[in-house]
Each structure stands twice: as C-alpha cells, then as structure tokens.
Amino acid sequence: MTNETHITGHYADGGLFDRLRSLLIEDGADPDNPSIDDLAPYDQFHGRAIEATRELADLFDPGADAHLLDIGSGIGGPARYLADRFGCRVTGIDLTAEFVDVARRLTDLVGLSGRVDFVQGNALSMPFHEASFDGAYSMNVSMNIADKDAFYREVRRVLRPGAPLILSELASGGAGEVDYPTPWAETEDASFLVSVDETVAGLERAGFLVERVRDATDENLAFGKRSKEMLDRGEKPPHRGVHLIHGPALAKTATGNTAKGIRSGNLVPVEVLCRRRG
Ligand SMILES: C[S@@+](CC[C@H](N)C(=O)[O-])C[C@H]1O[C@@H](n2cnc3c(N)ncnc32)[C@H](O)[C@@H]1O
Question: CATH number of the domain at 3-276, please?
C-alpha cells in the first residue's frame, strides 16, 4: 500500500454523501437545500469544528478579490465558511477523491460553486502556478504528511510574497505515546506528529516568517467538556464530523484517544500564523 492509499483508505468508503443526507434529514434540515449552518456540525473535520474555523478566519482579512487556498480541504466546510464570510474565492485541494466529490456537491447545494472550487491532488505537488494565492490555510492535515519540509516549500511556492499561511493542527507534546486510532490515522504508521518548535523551525527554513503561535489546549478541553454536557442532556454535540466519516464505534475510540492525548499534554492543538518572506 502506498502512503497515499493508506491515507485516503482511512478517510473514504464510498457512502459519505448519502450518510450526510440521512443525518441532515434526521436533524430536520432540507438535504437538497441545506444552509451553511445546517452543514457545520458535519463538514468541519477538525477539533472544535466551526469554532476553530471562525478563530482561524479571524486571523485573515482577505478582500472580496482575494483568492485563498485550503490545503487538505476535506468535504469543504472551512472553504465555504471563509468564502461566505469574506466574499472571496477559495480553492481547496485534497488527496481523498470522495471528499473532493462531496465538497463540490455540497458547495453547489449552498450556491457557492462560483467562488469555491476543489481539486483532487497531493499537497506535496500541487497543480497550481507559482505565487497563485493571496493566502493559504490548512486544518488538521499535516499530521498525515511525513515530509513537512517538502510540504512547507510547496505551499510557499504557490503563495504570493508576503501572503499569510495559517496552520491549525495537532502537534506532538512529547510527554508520551499517543494512542491510536485517532480521527486522522488508524495506526501510528499514518501519523506524523512533530513538536511546535519543529513546526516553527521547519516553516522558517522553508522561507516563512512565523508571526504568532497559539496553544489552544484550554479551548479544546472546554469544548470537550461542553460537548459531554450536551450528550449527557441527550442533545447532539456540536462536532459530528468524525461520526459522519468514521461511524460511531471508531469515532468514539478515536475522539477519546485524542481527548486523552490533549489532556495528558501528548497532543497540543496549535494555531500558527506565518507569512511568506519576499
Ligand atoms: C482531518 S481531515 C481535515 C479536513 C479539513 N481540513 C477540515 O478541517 O474539515 C484531513 C484531510 O487531509 C487530507 N490529506 C491528507 N494528506 C494529504 C496530502 N498529502 N495532500 C492533500 N490532502 C491530504 C485528507 O484526505 C483529509 O481530507
């Protein structure tokens, strides 16, 4: 198995769009005409769901004429949110073909196809010209990428000089072993965690100026506590993307392992804002 099929096999099983439609119906939403808010519990496939996407977007100030790149765009929730909030264009790229297909269909359903598009491809070799984008971001993706230096260099290549890059992801806290499965990897073989310091050093080596690093451990723990309280009250939790993609059994173990890692300090949710040097 190649590394690519190892990664995409973890995420895709062919029935995603139909499962999402059923969940929307269960929620009382119209699956043929969903709003961005209807999709938000399902289409944000990272810790703290839409809350983390809003905070990432707070770091951007793109004009309506800006073109952003979403690296590892999943089923497109973050891309649609940013395009809707700023009126800008967003292109997403993702390795998993099924995610790209679902991302396009959902974007069409919410009427954003004119400004948000998706391509299937590898973040290490993107089919874009040099300096094509005014900004880029990536949410919970680099944990699947072994060669971080090649990843950062490739992102730098497609960004205009001075353009921002925001990474929102999990770093290794170095306090001990992480238990698998997690939402991003069934086994340790598909997980490539590095420390915050290694991330910053790698970005600087690739030609980025790191402007800000935020440890979001407390926010993650608070979100987990709120979600548990909602479940205890018999309500649906705000983040249901892992359930949608992996099914309830794997989702329970995977989110439990992530929560345990964050509580113990083995996993550090981190947001890094950097800028492409001239
Ligand atoms: C945990 S999901 C996050 C999806 C999306 N960023 C979000 O937050 O909703 C990780 C995504 O990264 C994608 N991915 C992993 N390695 C990749 C690579 N080398 N190039 C492009 N996409 C990749 C996977 O296919 C998956 O969609």
Answer: 3.40.50.150
193 CA from centroid of ligand 1 (Å): 14
Cβ–ligand 1 distance for 140 under 6 Å, the answer: yes
In the chain, where the domains are located: 3-276
Q: What is d(CA 171, CA 227) in angstroms, rounded to the nearest whole number? A: 22
**Beta bridge mates, 69:** 91, 136
Pocket test for ligand 1, best of 70, 95, 245 (most atoms within 8 A of CB): 95
Distance CA 171, CA 184 (A): 13
pLDDT digits (tens, 9 = 90+) for 196-226: 999 999 999 999 999 999 999 999 999 999 9
Is the model's pLDDT at 1 over the cut of 60?
no
* CA pair distance 139, 90, nearest whole angstrom: 14
Residues contacting residue 245 through CB under 8 Å, at least 6 positions apart:
11, 16, 45, 183, 251
